[in-house]
Structures are given as C-alpha cells and as structure tokens.
Specification:
The complex is a heterodimer.
Chain A lengths: L1 H52 L2 H5 L2 E2 L4 E2 L2 H32 L5 H15 L2 H15 L6 H25 L3 H9 L4 H12 L1 H16 L3 H4 L19 H11 L4 H33 L4
Antiparallel strand pairs in A: 1-2
Helix pairs in contact in A: 1-12, 3-6, 3-9, 4-6, 5-6, 6-9, 7-8, 9-12, 11-12
Chain B lengths: L5 H5 L4 H39 L3 H4 L3 E2 L4 E2 L2 H32 L2 H15 L3 H19 L6 H25 L3 H9 L4 H12 L1 H17 L2 H6 L17 H8 L5 H31 L3
Antiparallel strand pairs in B: 1-2
Helix pairs in contact in B: 2-13, 4-5, 4-7, 4-10, 5-7, 6-7, 7-10, 8-9, 10-13, 12-13
Classes of the chains: A mainly alpha, B mainly alpha.
C-alpha cells in the first residue's frame, strides 16, 4: 500500500516537473516570439511607410513647406558635417587617452584612476545634459553660436567615453610579451605602439568608431540647442545645420502632415547607420588583408 | 585585464617616451576636466535659481509655472521615475527571457539571428522609436483610452528601447558563467528550468542587476522618445493613461524660449537629472566591482 502511494507520488512529481518544464519553455518562447513580432512590426512599418517617400530626388532636394515636400539634401550634408567634426575631434583624443591609460599611466596612479572614474561618469550622463552643457559652453561662452561646429563638439564629448573604453580594452587585450619584447630590444614605447600595438588593436578602434558614430547619429536632444534648426544648405562649419534626427523630430512634432517625410527620413537615418557600420567593417577587413596583422 | 607592472615604470624611460607621456597625459587630463566642466557649467548656469530662491523651492513649490515664479519639479520628477520604473519592470522579464532563450533554448543559428535582431534594434535612434510611438502606438491607445499620449505610451516605448541592450547585457552575464555550473546542476538531477532559475540566474545576478540599473539610467535620461509620446502636460502621474511631462522633455521643450531665472531653473533640473543618473550608474558600478573577473 505504502509502496503504491510512493509510486503514485513519484509519478505525480515527475508529471508535475514535466508540466513545469514545458510551461517554462512555452513562456520563454512566447516572450521571444512576441518581442520578435513587435520589433518586426515596427521595422516593417518604418520600411513600408519610408519607402513610399524615398527617391533620389528626396535625398538631393532641399526641403519645402517646412519639410512636408521636397527632400532632405541639406540635412544629410549637415548631418555628415556634424559627424565629421565630432569624429575629427574625438578619435585622436580617445586614441591618445586610451594609449595613455594602458601604456603610460601606472594603474595605481591617482590621476589615471580619476580619469577612469570621470569616463565612467561621463558615459552615464544623459544626452539632454550634454545639450545644456554644449549650449552653455560652445554656443555661449566660446561664441560659436548655433553652428555645426558646436553641435559636432558636443557630440564629440558624448562619444569620448564609449570610444576610449573600447579602444582601451582592445589595447589591454594584446599580449604583454609584445611590450616586453619591445622594451628588451630598446625600442621606445611610442614606437612599439605605433608599429605593433595600434595596428593590432585596429579592430577595437574600428568598433569604437562604429559605436561612437551610432551614438552620434542617433542623437537628437544634444543637438537641438547646439547645432540648431536651420534647414538651409550649410556653407561653412559656422552655419547652423539641422541633423537628420532633429529633422525627424521636428517633422513629427511641429509640422502637421509631415509624417510621410518623417518616415522617409527615419528610413534614411537607419540606412545611414547600417551603411556606416558596414563601411567600418569592410575597412577593417581590408586593413587586415593588407597588413596581415595577427589576431 | 593586463596592467603595467609597477616595476616596469622604474626602468629609465627613453627620452621620446617621456615627451609622449607628457603629451598623452595632458590629453587624457583634458578628458578628466571635461566632467568637471560639465558639472561646473550646470552649477554656474543654475546658480541664479539655486541662490536667489534656495534649492528647496524646487521641491516645495506646488507646480512648474516658471513665468509665475513657481518652480516645483516634483510632479515631473515623479513622472520621470514612474516612466523609468514601469519601463524597467516591463522590459526586465522579457530581457531575461531573451537571455535564457539565447543561452539555453535556441539552436546556434536561431540564437545568432535573434542576437543580430537585438543588435540592430539597439542601434535604432530614439527619435525613430518616438516617431513610431507617435504614429502607431498613441492612436492605438487613444482608440481605447483617450488621450493616448500618456504615461502608458511612454512606458511601452521606453521598454522597447531598453529591451535590446538589457537583453544583450544579461545574455553576456549568463554566458560568462563557468560551463560546469550548468552541467553539474544537470548531473545532480535538476531539471533544465530549475537549474536555470535556481542556479544560473542567481549566479549571474551581479551582471543582471548591472544591466537593469544601466537600462534604468538610460530610461531616466531619455528625452526625445518620451517627449514625443507622453503628452507633456505638467501634472502628477495619478493615472497611467494621463498625459505627463518628464524632466528631460521639460528641458528640451522650454530651453528654446527660456530666459533669466527660468533658464536657470532648467539648468537646475538638468543638474538634478544628472545626479539621479549618477546615483544609478554608481550603483551599477558597485555591482560591476562584484562581478568575477
């Protein structure tokens, strides 16, 4: 009798466990499928509504009627200019900072530790706060006004922490032997860096640039009060220029009947980000093929 | 992680290196100064509001009518916190499910595709999320519970925005656990789901907490997407279908025409936002320190 009870209980337990396992797996699959469906819906929506407004004319022409018709030519140019300024400032600075942190500063150094701490903090600062800072510092104090250059500089500040962090980890991942071998041969550290470490860390630099560009291209809040709203073709870096993301925001919030153009611009923005990523990856590949750098 | 051996530095540096150490060190110093600059400019610009009327005013005044000298930030602060908390509560279970799916349930091929999808989504600009929320989600909610542009819409859009990053970070946290943990749990006769829920998730908790806190910081600081879907009426978030205005959106909306004490008040709210996010990210860094290296 007891035996039978035991068997029954065990059987029930096994059955219960099987039920649990099945429902757990079902829950996981349900969550994943619903996430995928929602995001596919969203992407399909953007592509579907964006493609209708997209043409070569749209990419080249100037916006008319506050962007309801016409194109986004000047806006694409302004976006690329802002990105260029941001990269020109942040890439050398972040490589220098990462190199100093990995190869010149001793890890116990108070100064190095404070640099690392401030980078961590900067990485978490909300973009609107960078916008306020950029407005107060670049636009007002340095008298750069609403211009492409102050927008680019603000974005450079935002990109720095993420780029430095990634380049630093790339340099850190390289074997210590290479540095020691260089030192044993009497080669200066800067030469070891230039001829051995930096080429080997090129993929990390490329990844840092990709993520930096991704963050900068997607940015809206920091640009509204630094690079401004003007949608004319910029003639110099001191002109105000409207970034693509600001254009999307303006079309959807402030311009009634601008949704079509907003979706087309959103599609262009996403394609731009995907294309820049692809470009960076292919550059890295070519670099590897030419130099034959070992990983 | 590889660190320079302290002994190596005692070796006489070559002259070229000494030169470059100074150059690179001063460039790195500029980066450290950047944070001080950001803080200093926020404080300087917020000073007229902080000094003239005292910082308590921001919490004691009943509401935000800067032109009538009312500087109460609390309704917007509450809306910000509720939107961020709601988004995290909505996104975390889904992100954990995604992480478990990638690590334990999906085939290699499916996991790779799913990860690519998440990676693609993590790169989508917030303004695009806002646009989609404004044109698809808000009408959908308005159909059911007008006015549509509401705290609820903000929570859903924020949850969608933080989900990919949170899922990818949690996946990495679970994947970095030693493989023998899972295999020994199975060898002890635990079922798959028990070993995942009772052994692996607790073991990866530091990384998971960290991903949640970082997403929360991002949700708190997010401006554009929330600005576009939340309706932007300054009021206490008493109901999930009410329009609310969050702190960053307030700055973005009013900065264009603000002057004098009003502008100083906006800088002060930026300072408050930064302090909140700093609190969260230092909490995340604390969990980071506990992660096994």
């Amino acid at each position: 009798m007891t035996m039978m009870m035991c068997q029954l209980l065990t059987g029930l337990r096994v059955y219960f466990q099987a039920c649990m396992a099945r429902s757990f797996a079902a829950l996981i699959w349900l969550a994943v499928i619903s996430i995928t469906l929602i995001f596919v819906w969203m992407l399909a929506d953007i592509i579907w509504q964006g493609v209708r407004g997209l043409s070569w004319q749209f990419l080249i022409n100037a916006p008319q009627h506050a962007g309801r018709s016409g194109g986004i030519g000047p806006i694409v140019v302004a976006t690329l200019l802002i990105l260029m300024v941001a990269l020109l400032v942040s890439l050398p600075l972040s490589i220098a900072c990462a190199v100093w942190l990995t190869d010149f500063a001793p890890s116990y150094n108070v100064f190095a530790r404070s640099v690392r701490l401030s980078l961590d903090v900067l990485a978490g600062v909300p973009s609107i706060v960078f916008g306020l800072f950029g407005f107060a510092f670049f636009c007002v104090l340095l008298k750069l006004k609403f211009s492409i250059i102050s927008g680019g500089l603000t974005l450079a500040c935002m990109m720095l922490p993420i780029m430095i962090r990634i380049i630093e980890s790339g340099l850190n991942a390289l074997p210590c032997d290479w540095r020691q071998a260089g030192a044993a041969l009497g080669i200066s550290r800067i030469s070891v860096l230039r001829y051995v470490l930096l080429p080997a860390a090129a993929p990390a630099i490329v990844v840092g640039v990709i993520l930096g560009i991704g963050r900068a291209t997607a940015e809206t809040a920091a640009l509204i009060f630094t690079s401004g709203y003007v949608d004319r073709m910029p003639h110099s870096l001191m002109d105000s220029g409207r970034a693509l993301s600001v254009h999307i925001y303006d079309l959807s919030m402030n311009v009634s009947g601008g949704d079509q153009a907003a979706y087309a611009s959103a599609l262009v923005l996403i394609l731009l980000i995907v294309m820049l990523n692809g470009l960076a990856v292919s550059i890295a590949d070519q670099y590897f093929a030419k130099k034959g750098v070992l990983i | 992680m590889w660190r320079i051996d302290p002994l190596m530095l005692r070796i006489e540096m070559l002259r070229a290196d000494r030169f470059w150490q100074i150059v690179l060190g001063s460039l790195a110093g500029m980066v450290a100064i950047l944070l001080c600059l950001v803080l200093a400019f926020l404080v300087i610009n917020a000073w007229p509001a902080l000094a003239n009327q005292g910082w308590q005013r921001f919490f004691l005044d009943s509401s935000w009518y800067p032109l009538e000298n009312q500087f109460g930030l609390l309704p917007m602060l509450a809306a910000s916190l509720m939107a961020a908390l709601g988004a995290v509560m909505l996104a975390t279970p889904l992100a954990l499910a995604s992480a478990i799916f990638i690590n334990f349930y999906a085939s290699t091929k499916v996991a790779k595709r799913y990860r690519q999808l998440l990676g693609l989504l993590a790169g989508i600009p917030s303004v695009v999320f806002g646009l989609w929320g404004l044109t698809e989600l808000v009408p959908l909610i308005a159909h059911w519970q007008p006015p549509g542009a509401s705290l609820c819409a903000a929570i859903i859009i924020l949850a969608l925005m933080i989900l990919p990053t949170c899922a990818l970070l949690s996946t990495a946290a679970i994947a970095s656990l030693p493989a023998h943990l899972y295999s020994s749990a199975l060898a002890l006769g635990l079922s798959k789901n028990t070993s995942i829920v009772c052994i692996l998730l607790p073991a990866a908790r530091a990384g998971i907490y960290r991903s949640i806190l970082l997403s929360m910081a991002r949700a708190l600081g997010e401006t554009m997407a929330v600005l576009m879907v939340a309706g932007n009426v300054v009021q206490w978030p008493t109901h999930v279908f009410n329009s609310v205005r969050v702190l960053p959106a307030n700055i973005a909306l009013e900065m264009a025409y603000a002057g004098g004490v009003h502008r100083a008040g906006l800088f002060a709210s930026g300072l408050l936002l930064m302090l909140l996010v700093l609190l969260l990210s230092s909490w995340a860094a604390y969990h980071d320190a506990k992660l096994p290296t």
